[in-house]
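Appendix B. Chain record.
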Amino acid sequence: MAKKFRFELEVVLRMRVRAEQERQKEVARLETQRQQLMDQAIKMQRSMVLSRDLMRGQLSAGSSVRIDDIRAQASGSLHTMIELQRVALQAAGLHQKLAIARQQLLAASVQRKAVQTLKDKQLARWRMENERRETAELDDLVLMRAGSAGDADNNVPIASARAR
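Structure tokens predicted for this chain:
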């Protein structure tokens, strides 16, 4: 029976897999934050457009509009614009963090794949060696059997040999 394959760097491979998974989680976390910021920006932009269109509709309908309403709408739009700029700055910072995290993920993947490739090559070599060893053992068994069968024919007693 052949020995079970044992990869001496299995601990290193597990550490590399774990490091790659951690990097994947970090990229996913940053992607989630980025998507939340984008959703927030879209929501603010829609709110500004809706408010502006509502005010425009009131003005074009010829109905009377109070100055306080116009000021409130302008103030709300200004506040939303400032908030939108803040979100844009956060998104820019997050974009840089995401780029760094992706580079780290790529590096971790390359490191893991290097050890995984080494394991695959060693496993293939072990299998070839194991198969070669088993073939040699089978050949030895066949030769021993053939040799013992030949010995049995040569050791026929004389009395029975004369009877033939």
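Further analysis of this model is presented in Appendix C.
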